[in-house]
User: Fold this.
Amino acid sequence: GAVVSQHPSWVICKSGTSVKIECRSLDFQATTMFWYRQFPKQSLMLMATSNEGSKATYEQGVEKDKFLINHASLTLSTLTVTSAHPEDSSFYICSAIRRVSQETQYFGPGTRLLVL
Amino acid sequence: GNSVTQMEGPVTLSEEAFLTINCTYTATGYPSLFWYVQYPGEGLQLLLKATKADDKGSNKGFEATYRKETTSFHLEKGSVQVSDSAVYFCALSGFGNEKLTFGTGTRLTIIP
Assistant:
């Protein structure tokens, strides 16, 4: 149990377009989801915390108008990279915390974004 | 702020060798400490954790002890297997705070 999926697993897009990444908890309800970004050979950096039904809380330095996060249900959060540019190319990972147990984060497999 | 410093990789070992991956941290208060593992093509999975000083987390033959005096949480395994090949991440969360701070990850490759 506690499976988190992401879609797509990888995406290539042109500069200036927007890309939506989905994060789903497949077999549990998640009150909180997190979005991370990982550059090659670097740590996972927390971008934002998303709570179902409320606005996301962004970490310092993350542009909320560029990285739109929606958490409309207990099993789905989406990250939209708006007007993507080559510097947005990265590996984006989500995680979710179960509604009934607030201890462990369950991670998705990640989405690799390449902006040309 | 919180930070995690992790042994750089990649690390290559022969099967049945002893493994140590070093991890030290900087944090205020009493953080919880974690090791996550990422197998090829999969998401991060919690390997083990410790929530207070001197606690030992263990799972699948891996162990790590929360050492407050040295601010360390080194990962060890007495005899590694090819199936242990993965990327290992050390992480912490502040007391009462679910946000995780990660180390850079260590890629481990075990050769038969």
Q: What stands out?
A: The longest strand of chain A covers residues 30-38.
